[in-house]
User: What shape does this take?
Amino acid sequence: MKNTRRKNKAEGENIASERIKILFSLADRAALSGDLQVASRYVERARDIAMKFNIRLGREYGGRFCRGCSTYLLPGKTSIVRINSAEKRVETKCLSCGEKKYRPYVKEVRERRRKRNSPVTGPKP
Assistant: This one.
């Protein structure tokens, strides 16, 4: 009985993660077609499913919605995206609730420096 319960839980999590993926793709389509309310509703449903099954939304989905109001973030329409080069981060502000989200881009800077100073190509003058 214990193995059956684990199996059912794993099956439920797999189905839930597939539904989350589908809902986010539908939210992308709806937002690009101009229906932002439907896109936000898809995001809310995907978050509800993730919370019910205790599934983390990965980095691929984390930047697409506001954690404060569950609005789908479309740059220029529902959010403002700025690059703060002094602090090496990307700042996203939700226009619905005003919540700010910060994402560092230190890895990209390091990778660019490595490419620039690599011994194969040599440093640029």
Remarks:
- The chain has a mean pLDDT of 88.
- The chain has one domain: 2-116.
- The radius of gyration is 19 Å.
- The helical segments are 2-33, 36-52, 59-62, 106-116.
